[in-house]
TrEMBL record, chain A:
Stretches assigned to the ABC transporter domain: 4-255
Keyword hit for Transport: yes
GO cellular component, one term: plasma membrane
Keywords: ATP-binding, Cell inner membrane, Cell membrane, Membrane, Nucleotide-binding, Translocase, Transport
Keyword check for Hydrolase: no
Name recorded for this polypeptide: ABC transporter ATP-binding protein
Entry-linked PANTHER family: ATPASE AAA-TYPE CORE DOMAIN-CONTAINING PROTEIN, OLIGOPEPTIDE TRANSPORT ATP-BINDING PROTEIN APPD
A molecular function (GO) term: ATP hydrolysis activity
UniProtKB/TrEMBL annotation, chain B:
CDD domains according to UniProt: TM_PBP2
Ranges where the ABC transmembrane type-1 domain occurs: 80-269
Location within or outside the cell: Cell membrane
Family according to the record: Belongs to the binding-protein-dependent transport system permease family.
Protein name as it appears in the record: Peptide ABC transporter permease
Transmembrane domains' residue ranges: 21-44, 82-108, 115-137, 143-162, 201-224, 244-272
KW Transmembrane helix (keyword) present: yes
Keywords for the protein's UniProt record, in alphabetical order: Cell membrane, Membrane, Transmembrane, Transmembrane helix, Transport
Main location group: membrane
Source organism superkingdom: Bacteria
Membrane-topology annotation of the record: Multi-pass membrane protein
Gene Ontology terms: cellular component: plasma membrane
Origin organism lineage: Bacteria, Bacillati, Actinomycetota, Actinomycetes, Micromonosporales
PROSITE patterns associated with the record: ABC_TM1
Length: 270, 284
């Protein structure tokens, strides 16, 4: 049985437009899937639908089943919020695109990281402090003591995204959904955060749903790719398949643009 | 490897914040002290008219007397009590009702939210004066009626602000992020929504306090406020209008105290906001 099974998922806006249409895929334990598509193709909505957190007024149909170890398999679509509260965090959690807005501006970073540790591991007092600092160290933040005491606006963008990753990992999720976690970052910082994420996922044997519109980014992190366009899946396969033999014209465009980018980079090298 | 570190500039910000708070506390504290002393001691009994009409300052009357011969300073002391009672009472009532209604609307489903928003607009358009008249008709003129009428008026304003703030915060990523890690709604309200609403709200509440004290003045003028011989500053101001050229102190003194109180409370609110919102603490 897969950890996440999405079957015939559709999302309609309040005014009846189909934003996601008949989407089906699954992610097994330890598996890493890339969800790729242009802006507005419904990637973020798919991620929210998996968490049961779609904006009010949107209607969902189809099925999203989360079956995490140690938890009863749960159908997310139509589940009451209290049941999902127990599931969210442990079964799956999310890292968002914009690290500044994903952290509460009025709460010290340390407290924000401590919150999931307190709830999910039941830590208190000195043990909680200890775990918070080691969670910050684990995402390779130097001087975790200072970072823990800082407010989000007092640290850099890359540091914020590391903090957001630490917060997500503190839940010890079976599935991590990363919604364009590096798009808002500087290119050099992007690579750092990406390799950090890949290493942590591998070390913990977590599953990953990695959302991006950049094929070059997804290639280094995931095994399989699902290409989305206008709310539907147009193609799926291994990264190698997609890159070497894209079937859909849209996918071919993505591959071409990734290649152009690569060539441009290579040309600049001596 | 990692990006450059933004160094928080802490020291000057902290000084500035304490200056704001300190000055605010001194100004408002002056009025509070007057009010407290007035509970135990007054220079003259409130209705004593032995000083003669419109006596100048000095000669047993620190600030002189009003047109009925009552000691001005005594009136001011009693007035400070009324101003604080009206201000804090109306703001407490308006704050509690307003935040509760605003939170409810912020979280409500669309049609309920629309209903609350419409009700608030009607309430805001509904003059405080009319509410006060209805209350006075029902319960008689008293300080309590004035406080309730003014408090209801400010609760609508507070509720409308809270509703907008709550909606804005609920749409932020960090709320969704907290939700994806399994935080329940009550916790989100306590730990994320209220702390983020507070810095803006506290400044608005301070404004409401000034508005409340002034509103009481108009209510007193119409005989809808605290009944005599308890003169509020507002009523003193209005009664001194006729004699402002011959005895200007009668208008100036309550006006100055009113301004000191409003400025003091607003400075305190600014200070509290800066304490609550670390992003404002950078040096400016
Ligand atoms: N709250 C909303 N109400 C109505 N429509 C929405 C809402 N959120 C998103 N949409 C629409 O749904 C579509 C898919 O949005 P989504 O955010 O999933 O795109 P995306 O693939 O994540 O794009 P990007 O790469 O830019 O993040 C878009 O056309 C968008 O306009
Ligand atoms: Mg998106």
């Amino acid at each position: 049985m897969s950890l996440l099974t999405v079957n015939g998922l559709s999302v309609h806006s309040p005014d009846g437009r189909a934003l996601v249409r008949d989407l089906s895929f699954s992610i097994g334990p330890g598996e890493r899937l890339g969800l790729i598509g242009e802006s507005g193709s419904g990637k973020s909505l798919t991620a929210l639908a998996i968490m049961g957190l779609l904006p009010a007024g949107m209607t969902v149909s189809g099925s999203v089943v989360l079956d995490a170890p140690g938890m009863p398999a749960t159908e997310v679509v139509g589940a009451p919020s209290r049941r999902l509260d127990r599931l969210r965090g442990r079964a799956a959690t999310t890292v968002f695109q914009e690290p500044l807005t994903a952290l509460d501006p009025l709460m010290r970073v340390g407290r924000q990281v401590a919150e999931p540790l307190r709830r999910w591991r039941g830590l208190r007092g000195a043990a909680l402090r200890e775990a918070t600092l080691s969670a910050l160290t684990e995402v390779r933040l130097s001087d975790p003591e200072r970072i823990a005491r800082a407010y989000p606006h007092e640290i850099s963008g890359g540091q914020r995204q590391r903090v957001a990753i630490a917060m997500a990992l503190a839940c010890e999720p079976a599935l991590l959904i990363a919604d364009e976690p590096t798009t808002a970052l500087d290119v050099s910082v992007q690579a750092d955060v990406l390799s950090l994420l890949a290493n942590l996922i591998a070390a913990r044997g977590m599953s990953l749903l990695f959302i991006t519109h950049d094929l070059a980014v997804v290639a280094g992190v995931t095994d399989r790719v699902l290409v989305m366009r206008d709310g539907t899946a147009v193609e799926s396969g291994t990264v190698l398949d997609i890159v070497t033999a894209p079937r859909e014209p849209y996918t071919r465009d993505l591959v071409d643009s990734a290649r152009t980018f690569d060539e441009a980079l290579n040309r600049r090298k001596p | 490897m990692s990006a450059s570190v933004s160094v928080p500039v802490r020291a000057p910000a902290r000084r500035r914040r304490s200056v704001t708070l300190t000055v605010g506390c001194v100004l408002a504290g002056l009025i509070v002290a007057l009010a407290i002393v007035s509970l135990f001691w007054l220079p003259y009994p409130p209705s004593d008219v032995s000083g003669g009409r419109l006596a100048g300052p000095g000669g047993g009357h620190l600030l002189g007397t009003d047109k009925l011969g009552r000691d001005l300073f005594t009136q001011l002391m009693i007035g400070s009590r009324i101003a604080l009672a009206v201000g804090s009472g109306a703001v407490a009532l308006g704050g509690i009702l307003g935040v509760a209604a605003g939170l409810a609307a912020g979280f409500a489903t669309r049609w309920l939210d629309d209903a609350i928003a419409a009700a608030l607009d009607i309430l805001i358009a509904f003059p405080v004066l009319l509410v006060a008249m209805l209350l006075v008709a029902a319960r008689g003129a008293s300080l309590a009626s004035a406080i309730v009428a003014i408090g209801l008026g400010s609760s609508a304003v507070v509720a409308r602000l809270t509703r907008v703030l709550v909606k804005r915060i609920l749409s932020q990523d960090f709320v969704t992020a907290a939700r994806t890690s399994g935080t329940s709604w009550p916790r989100i309200v306590l730990e994320h929504v209220l702390p983020n609403v507070w810095p803006t709200l506290v400044v608005n509440l301070a404004l409401q306090l000034g508005v409340a004290v002034l509103a009481e003045a108009s209510l007193s003028y119409l005989g809808l406020g605290a009944p005599p011989p308890n003169e509020s500053w507002g009523r003193m101001l209005q009664e001194a209008q006729a004699t402002v050229l011959t005895a200007p102190l009668g208008a100036i003194a309550p006006g100055v105290l009113l301004i000191l109180l409003v400025i003091g409370v607003n400075l305190i609110a600014d200070g509290l906001r800066d304490v609550a919102d670390p992003t404002r603490r950078r040096s400016r």
